[in-house]
Amino acid sequence: MAAASQVFASHGYRGGSFQDVANVVGMSQTSLLHYFPTKRDLLLAVLEYRDTKLVNESGVPLDEGIVCEVLAQSEYNVGVPGLIELYTVLASESISPDHPGHAYFVARFGNLRAGYAEGFRALASEGRLRPGVDPDVAAASLVALWDGLQLQWLMAPGEVDVPAALRAYFDQVLTPTP
Amino acid sequence: MAAASQVFASHGYRGGSFQDVANVVGMSQTSLLHYFPTKRDLLLAVLEYRDTKLVNESGVPLDEGIVCEVLAQSEYNVGVPGLIELYTVLASESISPDHPGHAYFVARFGNLRAGYAEGFRALASEGRLRPGVDPDVAAASLVALWDGLQLQWLMAPGEVDVPAALRAYFDQVLTPTP
Hints:
The structure is a homodimer. In chain A, 74% of the residues lie in helices and 0% in strands.
């Protein structure tokens, strides 16, 4: 999984081959095919591996509201640029409906928007949303901002501070905690 | 250029081949190689073509401040999903330092951040920035938000309204026009 993540992050799904992954892991292509009959199977396993790894290893609290969750996860992500690159490259490749990751990413974005919208509505019920802020627009914007910041940070790590910019966004849409 | 844009948008630079482009345009690979000696030359020409086309055809006013410019360009972009997909796919592929588009995108993001920061500073001098908004953070965030929204819109066009979300962002960081 680590080898496949590395290959797909550097070359994309289309540019990365079974042979590249087999080379990194020091295994024959035949042995690799025993575990993953197709490259598509390998991709879907890598996406699941990435999700599980990020959630399990980050230690991010999931029951303290979206602000805490998003800021903690974004701090953690700074230490795992390879997994962030993997996500960024595969998401864009998957725009194409014939890409084997397409359904995964369409569902992922839909779930993220729905989850964050719920988080913003919870904050609204506590009177924390600033006037005029729509929970659904804020949810899509938060996902977008985070993805776009990570892209810029991967290109020029010294020039973009992802957690700081996300904190600034929350400051703009939420009133200060009492 | 249109054929190469289409091929690189659908398959990425790495997944798209000279032969694919030659097929779309109805030209032999040899003839295509006469104009573009390497695939790298073709990529750089496509990126320049895209920039020129977007600026020339959009009719977006460039001297009326960033709010007007960004909103008008984002409205125009809704009508040219192929060019937006091309940009989104190539930008992510180009994170890798050995990708021939890497230098182009590093420079592009740097220039966009610098230009928008200047725009936000101009608004600050008119007293239009809300308290606590940093022009440099707002500039990186605007670029990020726009890129991320376009990615979600390309995945699910009916679910994300890019110009509306950008307008909401400006409302959050700027005070209303007097």
